[in-house]
Amino acid sequence: MGFDFHEAGKLAKVKLDGFLQIDDEHGCLLAGIEGVGLLQPSRLAAEPYLCFGATA
Question: Per the confidence metrics, is the pTM higher than 0.90?
């Protein structure tokens, strides 16, 4: 199980020990803000939080 993403034009992989499955985009964003782990929300949903640097 892993998480693949692009960083500086290269594919980076992070090994994960488990995962949290959420079927609510708002819940996903709140979990990320609270530091539950890595998440991959849509940019449209995450942008307001990213613009203001939302953290727990």
Answer: no
Distance CA 21, CA 30 (A): 13
Type of residue at 18: G
Rounded-to-integer distance, Cα 55 and Cα 14, Å: 22
Q: Are 27 and 20 in contact (CB under 8 A)?
A: no
**By three-state DSSP, how is residue 49 classified?**
helix
The domain spans of the chain are: 22-56
User: What's the pLDDT tens digit per position in 5-49?
Assistant: 888 889 988 888 887 788 888 888 888 888 887 777 888 888 888
Asked if 17 and 2 count as a contact pair (C-beta separation under 8 A), the reply is no
